[in-house]
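Quick one:
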Amino acid sequence: MADPRSFVSFDFDHDESQRMLFVGQCKNSRTPFSAQDWSSKSVLAQSQWQTLIADKISRCHLMIVLVGRSMGSASGVAKEIQMAKDKNVPYFGVYVDGAGTSNTLPAGLARNRTISWKWDAIANAIDQVMTEGKNAKSAA
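Output:
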């Protein structure tokens, strides 16, 4: 699939600039894939957030979790991961903003599913998740 719909999950309080950089670079013609960002671009009331985000995630092929240094305090990210699990949307994490293997991961995100911000590795992870979860039946 040339242009998978991806939901980009991130710590809204600490990693908004990292999300903008990541999504901007995804649109760069030199990156080895194309992905549409369906994440929320503004703060939403809690009553709206859960319904809107769950709907967006369900309409995506995958979710990319941007893992920053303050991820341990990002309760919304853990909720988004659970929404992806509930909707059978495969996901993986990408370390941003100097984060690495010693930083706390959000609940539900495995360390072995979290990679460095390297475009070849991200392209490989996208190829992998496009054969998993709800994508598995359409990949055959």
